[in-house]
Design brief:
Blueprint lengths: L1 H43 L1
């Protein structure tokens, strides 16, 4: 039974890591999209 708590913590740590990586990828994607939109609008002027 003592081993299950360790694996639970391991699963939780993996979940947190995946969540953080996903959030960072999403934030980076939004920043790139915003930069592309601003860059494109400046070229039209």
């Amino acid at each position: 039974m003592g081993d299950s708590t360790g694996s639970m913590f391991y699963m939780f740590a993996i979940f947190i890591g995946i969540y953080i990586v996903g959030m960072l990828l999403y934030q980076g994607y939004q920043m790139i999209r915003k930069w592309c939109r601003n860059h494109r609008s400046k070229d039209k002027e």
